[in-house]
Design brief:
With 64 residues, this protein is α+β, with helices and mostly antiparallel strands. It contains 3 helices and 3 strands, in the order E-H-H-E-E-H. Helix 1 packs across helix 2. The model has no long low-confidence stretch (mean pLDDT 88).
């Protein structure tokens, strides 16, 4: 179920935006709406790489 934290990879908002080819603001909107889970470290967010894959997967299959 939950993986060991040492196995998890966290991405910055900018990295996620680049991967998804959207703006940083779009990633922030996804985080604040709850569509993309994130962990807050101080004033910045870190998004688990696995959460990005799960968020993108349904959109890919819908387009196909």
């Amino acid at each position: 179920m939950a993986r060991d934290l040492s196995e998890m990879r966290f991405l910055t908002v900018a990295e996620v935006a680049e991967m998804m080819r959207v703006s940083n603001m779009t990633v922030y909107r996804l985080v604040h709406s709850g569509e993309l889970p994130a962990v807050r470290f101080g004033r910045s967010f870190r998004i688990p790489e696995s959460a990005v894959a799960q968020a993108v997967q349904p959109r890919i299959s819908d387009a196909g």
